[in-house]
Amino acid sequence: MQAKKITLVIAVILTAVIGSLASTQANSDLWYISLNKSDLNPPSYVFGIVWPILYVLMMISAYLAHKRIYEIFIIQLVFNAAWSWLFFKFQMPLISLIDICLLIVLNLYITILMYRENKLAFILFIPYVLWISFASYLNLFIVINN
Global pTM? Predict the structure, then answer.
């Protein structure tokens, strides 16, 4: 059991690194800068504050609820990291929108599993689900308006 806990923590850290590699230049990327974005799109620095917090909360949640979520949590991390690459590096907003919608569905299921295993894990995971839901709106706005 301890190995699964540690694996999830390491997997979250790797996801954070892999995902951020695709988006670190977003504020200087001419393609991204030229997109019509929602008025609700936060300034770039907000993402640099929010995501590290969310990844820490994800690590704690995964650690606490590892028994029920292990396999599906790894799958959602793949979708999480893929989104940045699909959107920023490959400039595929529609495909990234599909990715994030699947990510939301997976995470809604994960929240149910977390609720059944560990209420604290469930509570700590909610901000992530809310944030990716908001991100899906921003992604959808870009798909519709560009």
Answer: 0.93
Give 63-77 pLDDT, tens digit per residue.
Answer: 999 999 999 999 999
Which token pair is 136? Answer: 């899906």
Hey, which bits of 70-145 come out as E strands? none
- Cβ-proximal residues to 145 (8 Å cutoff; 6+ apart), any chain: 36
Coil, helix or strand at residue 43: coil
- Residue-wise pLDDT for 34-45, tens only, equals 999 999 999 988
CB 113 within 8 A of CB 69: yes
Query: What is the rounded radius of gyration, in angstroms, for the C-alpha atoms of the chain?
Result: 15
Tokens of residue 53, six digits? 């917090």
